[in-house]
Amino acid sequence: MAFTSTASETSSDLRMSYLDVLEAEAVHIIREVAGTLERPVLLFSGGKDSAVMLHLARKAFLPGQLPFPVLHVDTGHNFPEVIEYRDKVVAEHQLTLRVAHVQDYIDDGRLTERPDGSRNPLQTVPLLDAITQHRFDAVFGGGRRDEEKARAKERVFSLRDEFGQWDPRQQRPELWNLYNGRHDPGGHVRVFPLSNWTELDVWHYIAREEIPLPAIYFSHQRQVFLRNGMWLAPGEWGGPRRDEQVQERTVRYRTVGDMSCTGALESGAATIDEVIAEISLSRITERGSSRADDRMSDTAMEDRKREGYF
Amino acid sequence: MTTLSLDTTRDGELLRLATAGSVDDGKSTLVGRLLYDSKSVLADQLEAVESASRARGYGQADLALLTDGLRAEREQGITIDVAYRYFATGNRRFILADTPGHVQYTRNMVTGASTAHLAVILVDARHGVVTQTRRHTAVAALLRTPHVVLAVNKMDLVGFAEDRFAEIDDEFRRLAGSLGVPDVRSIPLSALRGDNVVDPSTEMPWYTGPTFLQHLERVDLDEDLTALPARLPVQYVLPDGSLAGQLVAGQLRLGQQVLVTPAGRPAVVTAIGRLGTPIENARAGMSISVKLDGAGEVGRGDMIVAADRIPTTSRQVTATLCHVAERRLGEGTRVLVQHQTRVVEATVASIVDRLDLATLEHTPNSDPLVVNDIATVVLDLDEPIAADPYRLIRGTGSLLLIDPADGATLSAGLVGPAFR
Hints:
The complex is a heterodimer.
Chain A: H1 18-36, E1 40-43, H2 48-60, E2 70-74, H3 80-92, E3 97-101, H4 102-107, H5 124-133, E4 138-140, E5 157-160, E6 188-191, H6 199-209, E7 220-227, E8 230-232, E9 247-253, E10 264-266, H7 272-281, H8 286-290, H9 300-307
Helix pairs in contact in A: 1-2, 6-7
Chain B: E1 13-21, H1 27-37, H2 43-55, H3 71-76, E2 83-88, E3 92-98, H4 105-113, E4 118-124, H5 131-142, E5 147-153, H6 162-179, E6 183-188, H7 212-218, E7 231-233, E8 236-237, E9 243-246, E10 251-253, E11 257-261, E12 265-274, E13 277-279, E14 281-283, E15 287-293, E16 303-306, E17 312-323, E18 334-339, E19 342-356, E20 361-364, E21 374-387, E22 398-402, E23 409-415
Parallel strand pairs in B: 1-3, 1-4, 4-5, 5-6
Antiparallel strand pairs in B: 2-3, 7-16, 8-9, 9-15, 10-14, 11-12, 11-16, 12-13, 12-15, 17-21, 17-23, 18-19, 18-22, 19-20, 19-21, 22-23
């Protein structure tokens, strides 16, 4: 049996750009999860990567509804604009929202506030508890391999044991587009449909698909103070200290995380195209510019991932 | 001089490549150099590499540190697993699967190369084509990677000698030719110095071909999956009855006559949706949903195929296996076979032979498979699958063997005999 070439005249009109390829791949991954696992959930923080994830997941099942809930791990240190955005998106698309509150854990003593005030590392326990409580067996994350060295080695379907832990040396080989999400009883699989996307790809896709984002991604006036070379917003979490001076700056956020450790950058980029132009010229990575917790050590992300972090 | 820009447009093409090399061939340095010279390394990443290099007492930044990600790798100075890197030039985006060359070479390279359009195989110019090169080239040939590049590294250590390069190139071409690799290219370079990686070398005026990056930018990406017969594995049934999946080969158009396998029921395509938008034609690579008339009940695990060029539906499959698990796989073992979206129970009926990747000899051998073995096996399936020979359609000619006890992936399977 041999197949001779009979490419029809329409094939050239159907050329796929790299964004088309990335979109088709992500949708394939999302549909594989829906087709093979029992109780998926999509992590939704209101950040740009989770906004893109949600958009892709919704498109994957059109004209149907999203067949699984979304989960927000709420540090309690939120940008009000982001929570407003989250609730609007949930209402508009009639999503089922689950929230795991870090504050609850601090209130009853299961977790202790860190001296630096950051609650990013505290998200792991409420996340794992929510996974256990709702018996989620597949958790979609917006992680991208270009973000960080440890992520660069993670599979698209990444197994977690019953303690939610990742073992980078025991990863299942991932071949072709054949994903294997079988997991131990009590374990689950983290799934990263945006694995092969870069920060710029995400922005180009947001522009192409006209995906709404929280306002803090775009240039605005904000009261901020300088700590460790980063502009932080004041808040109940412990800033500013006595020696830190609050001033008004024109800023935007490049990532959205815990308010205590997510830095703003001085920027006049007020539209998606201006943001893309700014990122294209930037000589600093997304995490390096805006995440204090990843600056702590060379292997900070690897260590947190092993423990069960996003 | 290659034009470089991070400000890529939204409609450039995507090239996936995989690298392989022996220990000390300088693969991490080549990848680091590629990222560095293509301006894909940002200031804070470079700063981290410089400070790590200083801490180890190196005189200059060790670009290999850009890609050695995990703590164990840094401590042992080796690359453990497949790592993915992303870079872009004016007209293309690249996804690079960086696979280690030491132990577990076959498993890692098979993983990295299974999705690649292009495989990069590194050799040290002082040593030329070695056993490991033969293995890597054989894996690329086995997986039918459309393009293979031989990066002849460390040319500075052989005095940039043209005759040394020609000798290696000649041997490599003979090897690749005997394996049926469709497109090969050798490039003399020095990753450490940057010669012919991004910018042309001033030390090798006798070489007039493209630099490494120029080749990546120019290589023909048109695998012509669209010319193949249509193959749409059904992933999921949407609430309106549409059948969702990614077209792995060929094209589908409204009104087309199709068959639903493995049952073999004929049907007609009455609607095609591309993520919510109705379209008339779909091509390989697109994630779509279709409606059929006449097929009856269709669900996940079925496949929609062109009615005039159909796959072989059978309960027995002969496949070439790359064994990727530490546990052994012997005759009589019960396994799950995952073929696109279809999973069936099966028995390893017989293990026929072993392929020696270095000599390319098939030796009759029915011993259980151990990790990194490549073997011809016969699988008896409890239920039929509709498969194509891997050499004709990669997507519907590939399968996984899975341990039903704990779900571990055991082997990668290629339907049909190796290289033929």
